[in-house]
Write a structure and sequence with these properties.
12 helices, binds coenzyme A, binds zinc ion, 8-stranded parallel sheet
């Protein structure tokens, strides 16, 4: 007899084209970035962070965001998001036709100044303007609280500090609120506390997790966030990535590693693990170096993918 059970969905936002490439030593052309996005879509991705509309002096690798967005396939199956940190950025994002605008508020003052030359309060204010502009243009909004598990400059970050920011950002009613362990220092107990608290401070708003695997804790943190009801995660093909303003920050958790984990746990992602692994092999040839993903090396199991 056929089982009618429908698997619960974990949604992955693929961030390799933005968070992944912004700090990679390789300089990919617009054509290479667009080919990466096409391959990601072919592997089943429906949400792709494609570009950053920030200062090209601050992040030179993302200077071509307008050209990338102009060339990506627009079949309607993929929702494209882009980062904007000020009014000019959101205007460029609207002009480029993105489906979703993402903002960032860093949880600590020193990192906030290093990343976006603004205090935490100024960043919240900038986000309010970005959010209003995006909503007026009919575009979805997501805002990330960054460095929630620790700061490269100030060390440990108090949970209350993060949750106060979450509460303020919740007032803008984003479609999603993202908690990011930007430098990969978090552990599952801490992640559970943060997401539990965020759920209380942002009732009715979908929460998303963003983890870097700098200290090999990202998958454990994802499992902890899932235990707290989180069903949407950022990840990066091959585990490429970093932050140009966070010393020693290494890659995002690898998409293949997350997909293997959650598929084996009985969830569906809509993604084809074999196609992702093939795309990682292609990406390595484009970048000219290897990537951290483990499942891309080992393959799936029992089907190698
Ligand atoms: N798009 C393009 N150029 C922009 C821009 C945008 N959205 N915002 C600012 N600029 C340019 C300005 O034209 C100006 O250029 P000029 O020096 O040639 O005159 C320069 O950037 C500085 O502009 P200013 O408005 O004074 O911004 P700032 O110095 O206060 O910096 C940010 C604010 C947010 C623009 C900048 O810190 C930034 O882009 N940071 C990137 C952070 C990032 O992407 N981090 C990684 C992901 S979280
Ligand atoms: Zn990140």
């Amino acid at each position: 007899m056929l089982s009618l059970a429908v698997k619960e969905r974990i949604q992955i936002v693929e961030v390799a084209p933005r968070d992944g490439l912004q700090a990679d030593p390789a300089d990919l052309s617009v054509d290479q970035k667009v080919e990466l996005i096409e391959r990601l879509a072919a592997a089943g991705h429906t949400r792709i962070e494609a570009a950053s509309f920030v200062s090209p002096k601050a992040v030179p690798k993302m200077a071509d965001g307008d050209a990338v967005m102009a060339a990506v396939p627009r079949s309607g199956e993929v929702s494209y998001s882009a980062l904007a940190l000020n009014q000019r950025g959101v205007e460029r994002a609207v002009e480029a036709g993105v489906d979703e605008v993402c903002g960032v508020v860093v949880a600590t003052e020193t990192f906030s100044q290093a990343n976006q030359r603004a205090s935490v309060a100024e960043s919240v204010q900038r986000w309010r303007i970005i959010s209003e502009t995006a909503k007026a243009a009919g575009i979805k909004t997501a805002v990330t609280v960054s460095a929630v598990c620790g700061c490269p400059y100030e060390g440990r970050v108090a949970v209350d500090k993060v949750l106060d920011i979450v509460g303020e950002l919740a007032e803008t009613q984003p479609d999603e609120l993202v908690l990011a362990d930007t430098i990969g220092v978090g552990v599952p107990t801490q992640v559970a506390t943060l997401f539990e608290g965020a759920g209380e401070r942002a009732p009715g708003i979908a929460l998303r997790g963003h983890f870097h695997n700098t200290r090999n804790t990202a998958l454990a943190n994802i499992a902890a966030a899932m235990d707290n009801g989180v069903r949407v995660f950022d990840s990066s093909l091959g585990g490429v990535g970093g932050c140009p303003f966070a010393p020693k920050a290494t890659g995002n958790v690898a998409t293949e590693d997350v997909v293997y984990l959650v598929h084996e746990m009985g969830y569906d992602t809509g993604l084809d693990l074999g196609a992702l692994i093939d795309t990682t092999a292609w990406l390595e040839t484009q970048l000219g170096h290897g990537v951290p993903s483990l499942v891309a090396k080992a393959g799936g199991f029992p089907d190698p993918g």
